[in-house]
User: Fold this.
Amino acid sequence: MFRRRRLLSLVLLAGLAATGIVACTTTATSRVDDASRLIDEGQLPPGYRDWKLISVAREENEIDDIRAVLGNDTALHAYRQEKRPFPEGTIISRIAWSYEASEENNKVFGRSRQSFVAGHPKNGVQFMVKDSAKYASTGGWGYFQFDDGKPTKDAKAMQNCFPCHAKFEAHDYIFTNYAR
Ligand code: HEC
Assistant:
């Protein structure tokens, strides 16, 4: 009797665990789909700022910013596994800020031109969304730019995204490497 009851609770527990796993996977998948859908509809996906860091870069001359490249879970998984081409549902984002000398930090170092930090947001937020069927004409990636939270009005700049990224076709159109 005791053994049967224990068996029953084990079966129940296993059932609960399985439901949990299914629920978990479904939420993760639908969140990815939600983010691509929202971006395509012209909205910043909530939470993109909390995506994981892939690397940072500094652009000089007229771009003059300091930037971070972030990825959703699918992107990070592929980067860590060194998997290319990136799987469907990968989203990679580029955020950027003005590049500022920090007088406050310099005082601590006792030296000028020592510390440079991120200032105000600059040059918009960019996304690349992998959906090979939907974006077949641009190498399987959709290109998006938001300025002040709204899709950019700079149609000319949008025409330049794919031709420039196409130079990195051998890297699945992505420039940034994972900074270990
Ligand atoms: C003249 C070339 C050029 C153009 C045009 C360009 N990019 Fe990029 N993009 C780059 C380079 C180089 C990087 C690597 C990081 C850096 O130095 O800024 C990059 C990085 C990115 C990233 C991070 C993933 C990666 O490839 O490293 C995204 C997302 C992105 N660009 C989107 C866009 C979008 C959207 C547009 C059009 C509005 C665009 N880019 C136009 C050259 C370009």
In short: Residues 79 and 178 are 6 Å apart (CA to CA).
